[in-house]
Write a structure and sequence with these properties.
Blueprint lengths: L1 H55 L3 H20 L2 H36 L8 H20 L1 H9 L3 H24 L4 H27 L11 H36 L1 H38 L2 H28 L1 H8 L7 H15 L5 H8 L3 H23 L6 H24 L4 H24 L8 H23 L2 H18 L1
Helix pairs in contact: 1-4, 1-6, 1-8, 1-9, 1-18, 2-3, 2-5, 2-8, 2-9, 3-4, 3-5, 3-8, 4-7, 6-7, 8-9, 8-14, 9-10, 9-12, 9-13, 10-12, 10-16, 10-17, 12-15, 13-15, 14-15, 16-17
Length: 509
């Protein structure tokens, strides 16, 4: 019991650190987007998003390798194997170097082909788009080389340092936008170059910090063929999931560009940034839970794993609903306050993508639980088969000239299907009753959510005043929070939530 209390306290402490980091980073990111859209203009902003999207098609390796490295690090930490931790880190560094070379070659070949043969970019901006592509590829390479350090900090649950470095990165990106505003040359090229420099700085900070604080991070050439094979095998299946997810997120952006041009990409870029901001806040919460799930799985504490799985999923949905519902209900008004020129269809794309995030949050811990077992082949095949199927439906919608928002709705239907599959599979992994899980997590949380949403709907926005808008936002948050707190959670989950809120309160007051 004492160990569980310590674990819960640590999760709460890490959540506080990450939420403070995310809130600050989110505010900076939203302000940065406003300035960047003004500095570049809608067309150049759209070009940056679609060309960057081409490179992001390869960034799945970055996120999946973080997951892979973190999983193996946490597994060794759960067993208390110091030597194994260092071997995992060194092997991870070797893998990243190999992956970086492969990505550079693939990015150049396929990126240039898409740029000159498929993307709809004004001829006079092709030179700028070329250099945006080059700098974006190099930025991705730097991010890939940072994977072992990022994964190690997360595995160590050193969230305070992780938060400080991330906030610094956000400040540097904001500084880059200010520099772009004063620049008299091609602002699009200059901005892409500055983002590359920012990532290089952050990469060296991560490396310097880890090398000076943790002895396990001391790199030496380590050849462990068995471990490398296991990590590459695990990464290959998680990479498949990354490929299909990016096919949905960025591949569909490329399709929008091919059928509708860069102006629509600007709208998608804005909606993706809003999604990234709220999802980062949620991701910080699951980042606090994930190491504990893997460590407890490695140590064989099944009851603790089940508890973390249920509590993490419900709290993830709770937090995502508090973040997304006020935005969904007031999208046009908030966009008007935030941006000077709002690209067409931004409000519709934003509402749909936040609904997707809301549904996805229900299974935020399911993925971690399944991957903790290491038995993911059939899971990844079915999961990605579902994603590809709905992407194919989206492509058909483009070809048949359905309304502009319909392909995005296919992504929403995909997320609903995936939430049921991931929940079912996670239950089967460690013998959890599927009926109990879906009743406790999906049914209770969705029931409380729709009750709260119904109550909020009786408070229509009748005026354009900013004070009235703020009151409506606060009202939506309070109602949704109360309904989910009273109906969705059990006593243990309420206690954890109160503990976390108390830590946040004492942190500031």
């Amino acid at each position: 019991m004492g160990e569980q209390n310590y674990s819960s306290s640590r999760i709460a402490k890490n959540t506080v650190a990450l939420y403070i980091r995310s809130f600050i980073s989110m505010l900076i990111a939203l302000y940065t987007s406003r300035l960047l859209l003004k500095a570049l203009g809608i067309d150049d902003f759209g070009i940056y998003n679609v060309v960057g999207g081409v490179v992001m098609l390869f960034s799945f390796l970055n996120s999946t390798l973080v997951v892979s490295s973190q999983r193996f690090l946490n597994y060794e930490m759960g067993k208390g194997n110091y030597t194994g931790i260092n071997e995992v880190f060194c092997t991870s560094v070797n893998i990243q170097l190999l992956i970086a070379i492969i990505i550079f070659i693939m990015g150049e070949a396929s990126g240039l082909y898409l740029l000159y043969h498929y993307l709809s970019i004004p001829q006079e901006r092709m030179f700028a788009a070329f250099w945006v592509l080059q700098f974006s590829i190099l930025t991705l390479i730097v991010n890939i080389l940072s994977v072992p350090y990022n994964a190690f900090i997360i595995a160590k649950e050193d969230m305070k340092s992780f938060a400080y470095i991330d906030i610094l990165g956000s400040i540097l990106k904001l500084s880059a936008v200010f520099a772009v505003i004063t620049f008299v040359g091609d602002r699009l090229i200059f901005y892409a170059l500055l983002i590359l420099l920012v990532q290089i700085i952050i990469r060296f900070i991560y490396s310097f910090y880890c090398n000076h604080k943790y002895a396990e991070v001391k790199y030496h050439f380590c050849r462990n063929d068995k471990l490398m094979k296991e990590m590459l095998s695990f990464s290959s299946w998680t990479s498949l999931s990354g490929i299909t997810s990016l096919l949905n997120n960025y591949g569909i952006g490329i399709l929008y560009n091919m059928f509708y041009g860069v102006a629509v990409n600007a709208a998608i870029g804005i909606s993706n940034q809003i999604h990234a901001a709220v999802w980062t806040l949620l991701g910080n919460f699951t980042t606090s839970f994930n190491p504990q799930i893997t460590k407890n799985y490695a140590s064989g504490d099944w009851n603790r794993v089940k508890q973390l799985h249920f509590t993490g999923a419900k709290l993830s949905f709770f937090l995502m609903s508090l973040l997304s519902v006020p935005i969904i209900l007031n999208t046009k008004h908030l966009l008007g306050l935030w941006l000077i020129d709002v690209p067409p269809y931004t409000d519709v794309f934003t509402q749909i993508i936040l609904c997707i995030a809301l549904i996805s949050s229900l299974t935020s811990t399911s993925n971690t639980l399944v991957r903790s077992t290491g038995k993911i082949k059939s899971y990844e095949l079915i999961l990605n088969g579902i994603i590809v199927f709905f992407f194919f439906l989206s492509f058909i919608c483009f070809r048949l000239h359905f309304p502009l928002y319909v392909p995005y709705l296919m992504l929403l239907f995909s997320s609903v299907t995936l939430s049921f599959f991931e929940g079912y599979r996670s239950c089967k992994c460690i013998g959890i009753s599927c009926r109990r899980y879906f009743y406790s997590v999906h049914f209770r949380m969705l029931l409380s959510f729709f009750i709260g949403l119904s109550v909020v709907s009786f408070f229509p926005l009748e005026t354009e005043g900013i004070i009235y808008l703020l009151v409506r936002l606060l009202y939506a948050v309070i109602v949704i929070a109360l309904c989910e707190y009273l109906i969705g959670f059990n006593n243990r989950e309420r206690n954890f939530l109160k503990q976390t809120v108390s830590k946040i309160w004492h942190k500031f007051f």
